[in-house]
Amino acid sequence: MGRAVGETVDLLPVNGAALSADPRAAEAIRAVGTRHGVDYTDDAAVTALLAERRQALQATQHGTLIWLGGSTLIMGVVWPFIGPILPAFAGKDPFLVAAPAGPLLVVAVAALTLVRVRWKRELIHPVLAGYRETLGVARAHGVPLTHIPAWLEGRSSTGGGKGAAPVPTYPPVQPAAAQATPVPTTPDRDGNAPDDESPASESTPEPSAPASTPAPAVPVPPKPSKVEDYERMADVGGWHDETGWLLIFAGVIGTAWAYTDGSPIGYATVFLVPMAVFVWLAGSRQGDEKNELREEALKYVKALEAAQAAGAHVPELSPQLRALVDKD
Q1: What confidence tens digit (pLDDT) does each residue in 316-327 have?
Q2: Which of 275, 249, 251, 255 is closest to 267 using CA atoms?
Q3: Alpha carbon separation from 178 to 173, 175, 207, 209 (Å, rounded)
Q4: What's the alpha-carbon Rg for the chain, to the nearest Å?
Q5: How far apart are CA 103 and CA 58, in angstroms?
Q6: Most buried among 71, 132, 225, 278, using CB within 10 Å?
């Protein structure tokens, strides 16, 4: 089931506040942005950039070229089977009749290869490569990523596989250890530094300036119980239609066998028909419940999006919610 109009989710993999929280990560990310001419800590700019590049990627998979490649591929595959049975080719050499399939397949492969090349060119666009590098740097510094869109890495719409352009992996950066401030010492009259046990080595700490009050952290919305129910149900089901049809076929075939062979026991299979209806009704109820929970999950993701835009560090999404965000 697709997403309704107005349900577009603009949840970023990570927001600028999280990228700027670690000074070393922020410095490395600023260097990446300088090379590519993009401020990857600007949430509005990154949201617009991702929307523009995703649209460009999708455009490569539509149009005349993809239609030409797909149609000629289908024709090239089926022509050897349908060509010989056409009246216009009756009585002719089957090999000559099937020969046009070769050029059709060549045209199809060439067209689809060109589509793939254009798609890959858009996927490795410099600003997208820089953003993937930014995500890799953030992950190396321990900054949690909420999710990585499947299209950004060139993965399938289901999110499977490694992808044609995965986010690079860098060695983890160890947290910065607290550096102790060295205590200044005063040499004695002979120019030697005092011993550690000397009272001169003990210095009175300077009064420190009052620390600035940190900005209050933006709270992350708690996960409702209905969203947890959706996560448990998202991958459940999908067998009711197939099972219902199997029961219908078994009931019809059993009843027909009983009628033709005069076997009364075969008529018992007629009870499989109401059982199929029961299975279909159970599947329908489960589907309605899943759709209701899906709406709650979408509301939760939109709440996370608003919190992220306000500066919250949104944790990593579950696989079920990631699939919901990636779904077109």
Answers
A1: 888 888 888 876
A2: 255
A3: 15, 9, 19, 19
A4: 32
A5: 28
A6: 132
Sign of the CA dihedral running 127, 130, 136, 139? negative
Contact call for residues 54 and 151 (beta carbons, < 8 A): yes
Residue 194 near residue 186, CB atoms below 8 Å: yes
Task: Name all contacts of 81-88 with Cβ < 8 Å and 24+ positions apart.
Answer: none
Are 276 and 244 in contact by the 8 Å Cβ rule? The answer is yes
The pLDDT tens digits for 17-36 are 889 888 899 999 999 999 99
Contact 9, 325 (CB under 8 A): yes
pLDDT at res. 240: 62
* Confidence bin at 222 (pLDDT 50/70/90): confident
Contacts of 218 (CB under 8 A, 6+ apart): 17, 307, 310, 311, 312
Single-letter amino acid code for the residue at 167: V
Both structure tokens of 208: 């420190």
Cα end-to-end span (Å), the chain: 9
Per-residue 3-state assignment (H helix, E strand, C coil) for 229-285? HHHHHCCCCCCHHHHHHHHHHHHHHHHHHHHHHCCHHHHHHHHHHHHHHHHHHHHHH
How many of the other CB atoms lie within 10 Å of CB of 168?
A: 13
Residue keyed to tokens 């607290």: 178
The 3-state DSSP class for residue 31 equals helix
Under DSSP, the state recorded for 170 is -
Question: How many residues appear in the chain?
Answer: 328
d(CA 212, CA 216): 12
Q: For residue 299, what are its two tokens?
A: 């509301």
Q: What are phi and psi of 143, to 5 degrees?
A: -80, 120
pLDDT at 147 over 50: yes
SS3 letters across 176-241: CCCCCCCCCCCCCCCCCCCCCCCHHHCCCCCCCCCCCCCCCCCCCCCCCHHHHHHHHHCCCCCCHH
> Is the whole model's pTM more than 0.70, yes or no?
no
Say if residues 301 and 234 touch (Cβ distance below 8 Å).
no
Helix, strand, coil % in the chain, rounded to nearest 5: 60, 0, 40
